[in-house]
Amino acid sequence: MPAGTGSSVRTCINGLNALSGVGLLSVPYALSQGGWLSLALLAAVAAACWYTGTLLGHCMDADAAIRTYPDIGERAFGRAGSLVVSAFMYAELYLVATGFLILEGDNLDKLFPGASISLGTVSLAGKQLFVVLVALVIAPTTWLRSLGVLAYVSATGVFASVIIVLSVLWAAAVDGVGFSGRGTTPLRITGLPTALGLYIFCYGGHPVFPTLYTSMKQKSQFPKMLVICFLLCTLNYGAMAVLGYLMYGDGVLSQVTLNLPAARLSSKVAIYTTLLNPISKYALVVTPIAAAIEERIRGAVGAGAAVSVAVRTLLVLSTVAVALAVPFFADLMALVGSLLNVGVCMLLPCACYVRIFGAPSMSRGEAAAIGMILALGSLVAVTGTYYSLMKIIHELM
Predict the structure, then answer these.
(1) Nearest to 30 by CA among 40, 19, 16
(2) In a domain, 117, yes or no
(3) Domain coverage including residue 375
(4) pTM for this structure?
(5) Any transmembrane segments, and where (predicted)?
């Protein structure tokens, strides 16, 4: 594997950014679903995802030609492996982009309640209006081929995550919200599938890890770099979960910002910071999907700039349609975590590692760790997906 040029510090910052996402807003809700003891599951999920991240690094060592996550799938299982990994990755990115629109609509509706607009016979109000308006703002950013500026803006994700937690703390300690929540449930078995799905959603950085590994000058530092990233992000997620649950108890909403008193400065800081991140990251999330579609079109009939704009615009419109049809942020993200993130972050790294290196070459400790992760991942994939789908169907009925 050729050496990269990135320092461990820069790679660590990029890793933190990959793991710092909108899942931060839903961890208080996840805690309310699972109860206080589910915090142990947050730590267990973090440890499992860190370990599978190191397995991806070992897979990268197996072949100098491996550069991406789909390359690992191809090295392990041939063309079928590459297709499976790509399918999971693209589906995850698509639904995360959809979640961005739902989040924007929810929080803007809180800031500007009662907003509506009518164009002829078409009338839009509340969350639906803001989802459409945000899409109109975001769509031109997806047309850009060079995402250098957007990448720079999205790198503020780490800083933004810390700001949101501090703003929520300020709302509780200074702006009068207090810690009067009545969340006293030690463990809620029926809510564990949802809680686990949301916890796993928080650690969906694995598609980026091969790129980070390739960029490192000292690749032997990769596991230690991941330890730092996962530890710091888990502390941030854990702090937000505890804060939100202490503040609002079992009444905490799917995004804790929706509970905050809108008139307070701390609330405005938290909400506006929350709104900035998805707008800056949406194009980065959908570009890999658009590029894959354009590559297929180019191979078949050729694709120019007009086709590229059309593909990306249709992608935005499709995510708008899904966001309007299934406007349930926590349930959708729990589904992404249970079905897609489990595959990308737990099951596929283990399967690829075992396939590439072979079970006989593993130590007992490795075999035990991989076995436990596969068991946990399979359990979450089945139960979490079922419960998330049932909740979404119930909401739609």
Answers:
(1) 40
(2) yes
(3) 8-396
(4) 0.89
(5) 12-31, 37-59, 80-103, 115-138, 150-172, 192-213, 225-249, 300-326, 332-356, 368-389
Q: What is the pLDDT of residues 278-296, one digit of tens each?
A: 777 888 788 888 888 888 8
Q: Is 128 exposed, middle or buried (0-12, 13-18, 19+ CB in 10 A)?
A: middle
3 in any annotated domain: no
Residue labelled with tokens 């283990």? 350
Amino acid at 179: F
Q: Which two tokens stand for residue 371?
A: 């076995």
pLDDT at 368: 95
Q: Which two tokens stand for residue 66?
A: 């491996």
CA 96 to chain centroid, in Å, comes to 6
Burial class of residue 105 (count of CB atoms within 10 Å of its CB; 0-12, 13-18, 19+): buried
Q: How many CA atoms lie within 13 A of 220 on its CB side?
A: 0
Cα separation, 200 vs 142, in Å, equals 27
The answer to which of 142-156, 164-178, 282-296 has the lowest mean pLDDT is 142-156
User: Are 206 and 68 within 8 A, CB to CB?
Assistant: no
Q: What is the mean pLDDT of residues 73-86?
A: 95
230-250 tens-digit pLDDT: 999 999 999 999 999 999 999
Residue 1 lies in a domain: no
Q: Which residues is 255 bridged to in the sheet?
A: none
2 lies in a domain? Answer: no
Token pair for 199: 């916890």
Count of domains observed in the chain: 1
